[in-house]
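Q: Predict the bound structure with calcium ion.
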Amino acid sequence: GRARADAGVTLFDPEMEEAVGRRHVLERELRHAVEREELRLLYQPKIDLGTGCVIGMEALVRWQHPELGLVSPAQFIPVAEETGVIVAIGDWVLREACRQARVWHDAGHKELVVAVNVSGRQFRVHDLTDRIRAALADAGLPPQALEVEITETAVMGDVSDAVRMLNEWHDMGVSVAIDDFGTGYSSLGYLRQLPLTTLKIDQSFVRDLPEGDTDRAVARTILQLAEVLDLKVVAEGIETPAHVDVLKGLGCHLGQGYHYARPLPPADFLAFLEAHTVE
Ligand code: C2E
Ligand code: CA
Ligand code: CA
Ligand code: CA
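A: Predicted complex:
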């Protein structure tokens, strides 16, 4: 640092200054990202592990800024959450994912379900149900072709509110997945109250599955729980054939990960799809 306060606190740490500066730039630039059309979606195939066929895709947002370059969602989603810009970004993501899914439905892939991530702050916006309904209607996409991924943390923020919203989506025909399952507050009581479709095993439990006894026990527990609750299970972060073998051995039938495909631009997703579809 260049200067120090009496208490010995570093006031002008160049590194910190840089971090604060970057954060400030991100915040400012993010406000215009939607209108300047700097966001785009990639689609990661979700796979039936038994057949290798594509059952759907997760939409993952990317921000391509002219000067900052490609900014990862891990960097800008937290900023968008804190500033509230997540509402506009989330709305764009929802609409674009539905529009794109409709295009692929029209191309003959009516089985595809598109999954959209909804973060905590976005979840607490009271008219999210209306926004979902509008996005589906404008795209002409059936609600059954949409799945919303939310984290345990978002749900636990206000369980009664979550129950109300998820019931609205369920009544509409939209599926709900709990993302990163096992990493949040694991209160199993709330699970029974929610009209869920899917649990997603977090990639942190999948990574060491072939060697790790504990991770295998966690995965097994999630699968047993899902069976009791009659939920589907999707494993995230499948990177190797060994991951596939262990998961199939445990009775997990669905997954996604680099072993099959990275998140892909729309044209590449379509090519992958046509190579991995049963006639
Ligand atoms: P997530 O929802 O858990 O998404 C999975 C992340 O794991 C994605 O990172 C994906 O690219 C990555 N991934 C997929 N397969 C593998 C694999 O085999 N190995 C490894 N190591 N990683 C894999 P990404 O795209 O950088 O997104 C990071 C997080 O940002 C997401 O985590 C999600 O929480 C958030 N996010 C992404 N898109 C959106 C969005 O449109 N809206 C909101 N609210 N959040 C989003
Ligand atoms: Ca997700
Ligand atoms: Ca996840
Ligand atoms: Ca994650």
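A: The CA atoms of residues 1 and 14 lie 6 Å apart.
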